[in-house]
Known about the structure:
The protein is α/β, with parallel strands linked by helices. The protein is built from 7 helices and 4 strands. It has helices at 8-25, 42-56, 78-81, 86-98, 126-135, 153-170, 184-197, and strands at 68-74, 107-111, 140-144, 173-176. β3, α6 and β4 form a beta-alpha-beta unit. α2 (42-56) crosses α4 (86-98) and α5 (126-135) packs parallel to α6. The mean pLDDT is 94.
Amino acid sequence: MTSAYASYSGCRQYLDDIAAARAAVGERAPVVDKLRLFYNHPGFVEPLAELVAAAFERVPEDRRAAARLVFTAHSLPRALAASCDYEAQLRETAALVAFPLGRPDWTLAWQSRSGPPSQPWLDPDIVDHLRALVAAGARDVVVAPVGFTSDHMEVLYDLDLEARSRALELGLNMVRAATVGTHPRFVRMIRELVQERFSDAPVRPHLGARGPAPDACAPGCCPAPRG
């Protein structure tokens, strides 16, 4: 699992499935450990800031200062989001990325919604948010999918196809920042997190006020949805 953030779908569900698989194998099952969440680790935040800065370089220079910055992540049902720190951690990451870029007026939008229309999910959806930006006078927007670590299908379809098509209809210049993917600093961070688990006195680097995530999730965190 490669989610930097806490949620049932991105963390707890995997842990429960691993525990069930180990129980099925029995005492010969291998120990499966999980690295700590890294939403505020410098090895995640700093490459993101670099990639967002590179995206702003693709905005015409005379309009760059006025360009809007929108971070995106996978939406969740509101009931599920209320049971974890997913949204708060995403906002922490966004603030940490935006600060060194001098972009305090960022917004957070959501993508990849599914489920019945009657079920409330985190909003605004990125496509709807683009319309609101244009209504407010925006001509350029940089969209940074900080909720994802690679340019997989949800990023490619929801942003590069669906959101970009809407931006073109609206006359809005949309530039999409890359995900961390194979960025050398991000890859080095994964190695550092593995080394942490073998150290008796790990350094546990982090940025911001929330502190480093614990090595092991609390038993009751990110509970499964009811019903």
